[in-house]
TrEMBL record:
Keywords: Manganese, Metal-binding, NAD, Oxidoreductase. The keyword Transmembrane does not apply. Belongs to the isocitrate and isopropylmalate dehydrogenases family. It comes from Ruminiclostridium herbifermentans. The lineage of its organism: Bacteria, Bacillati, Bacillota, Clostridia, Eubacteriales. Residues 5-348 form the Isopropylmalate dehydrogenase-like domain. NCBIfam families: PRK03437.1, TTC. It is an enzyme of class 1 (oxidoreductase). Pfam families: Iso_dh (PF00180). Transmembrane segments: none annotated. Signal peptide: none annotated. Its cofactor is Mg(2+); Mn(2+). GO terms for molecular function: D-malate dehydrogenase (decarboxylating) (NAD+) activity; magnesium ion binding; NAD binding. This is D-malate dehydrogenase (decarboxylating).
Length: 356
């Protein structure tokens, strides 16, 4: 029997509500297949912890987390705690500290999901966006000169290393080859005349090793337009940290909204644990009311199962989510239903038992 150690950081707001449903689904998988076992350990880190201790994560937190196979994260954010504190104090600390340089976000329109686009073939909204997750525009490099003076200047520097670009682009080519799909790079070399020129060069260079992969290259502005007008153009997409942040929110919007958007932060070498999380935040407006949609958090469980090599179970969980959405009997208010968070989680478990 294989056992996987999972660190659960449920976090703030609706985080704990949606994460407990994801844990429920993982336990169901383990029950349906006794060969797979998960050991869960809860950690109280996040903004509430910050309010009490002045820290987002314990001093030895990263050392502790290192021993796990995966991190399952809810959401961090709390009224009164500035976003940059929660972001840099926990989320980016883990992403950077554990070199999770791949941010993998499925943009797939499931049956039963609402799509705001008209006149598109629903089955063609099916892509995977790979966002560079360790450097680029979010490297945190810059300067603030002559603060408060008339000549004040603020610099925010993008950092694009050869190693950083090559590894994410190579990952994307490998995935496109494995799945027999096209690969699209999104950049902006006409305006960002250093970083994106380099990005495009690396994309082309590495492409020489993958003559079997059909590639496209879009400027980010044009890509945004086509995400809306012709999303069928995209299959596997690779892009920088900032552009990936933006286009994946657009992707979430065309594939059913925040309640359905999942994201994996991967360290493909498995030197460090990878982290799985719903894309949405802590949503304090609906926290504690059982209204939170757990499907994004459950979809990230499907990604975790894929990453552990249980692709058939990852697919079964996704099929179970889709079944619940098509049946429309158990849905949270954001999807037009009247069910509570835990009832939706129970429905997914039931659907999974039927599928498996
Ligand atoms: P944070 O500061 O942590 O990002 P936020 O209020 O910005 O929190 P978001 O996740 O960005 O929260 O979501 C914006 C809004 O979308 C929320 O206020 C909430 O109404 C809705 N929302 C987000 N996630 C969910 C969900 N899982 N289920 C239902 N509604 C959601
Ligand atoms: Mg937010």
């Amino acid at each position: 029997m294989k056992s996987h150690k999972i660190a659960v950081i449920a976090g703030d707001g609706i985080g704990p509500e949606v994460i407990s449903e994801g844990v429920k689904v993982l336990k169901a998988v383990s029950k349906l297949n006794p060969e797979i076992n998960f050991e869960f350990t809860d950690f109280p880190w996040g903004c509430e912890y910050y309010v009490k201790t002045g820290k987002m994560i314990a001093d030895d937190g990263m050392e502790t987390l290192k021993k796990f196979d995966a991190i399952y994260l809810g959401a961090v954010g709390y009224p009164g705690v500035p976003d940059h504190i929660s972001l840099w104090g926990l989320l980016l600390k883990i992403r950077k500290g554990f070199d999770q340089y791949i941010n993998l976000r499925p943009v797939k329109l499931l049956n039963g999901a609402e799509c705001p686009l008209k006149n598109v073939d629903r089955s063609q909204i099916d892509m995977v966006v790979i966002r560079e997750n360790s450097e680029g525009e979010y490297a945190g490099a810059g300067d603030w000169l002559f603060k408060g003076k008339p000549e004040e200047v603020v610099l925010q520097t993008g950092v694009f290393s050869r190693k950083g670009c090559e590894r994410v682009i190579r990952y994307a080519y490998e995935l496109a080859r494995k799945e027999g799909k096209t690969l699209t790079s999104i950049s902006k070399a006409n305006a960002l005349n250093y970083s994106m020129v380099f990005w495009d060069e690396v994309f082309e260079e590495i492409g020489k090793e993958y003559p079997d992969v059909k590639t496209y290259s879009y400027l980010v502005d044009a890509a945004c337009m086509f995400f809306v007008k012709q999303p069928e153009r995209f299959q596997i997409v690779v892009t920088s940290n900032l552009f990936g942040d933006i286009v994946t929110d657009l992707g979430a919007a065309i594939a059913g909204g925040l309640g359905l958007a999942a994201g994996a932060n991967l360290n493909p070498e498995r030197t460090f644990p990878s982290m799985f999380e719903p894309v949405h935040g802590s949503a304090p407006d609906i926290a504690g009311q059982g209204k939170a949609n757990p499907l994004a958090a459950i979809w990230s469980v499907s990604q975790m199962l894929d990453f552990f090599g249980y692709e058939n179970w990852g697919k079964a969980v996704l099929d179970a989510i889709e079944k619940v959405m098509v049946e429309k009997k158990f849905l949270t208010p954001d999807m037009g239903g009247t069910s509570k968070t835990n009832e939706v989680g129970d429905a997914v478990v039931k659907a999974l038992e039927e599928i498996a």
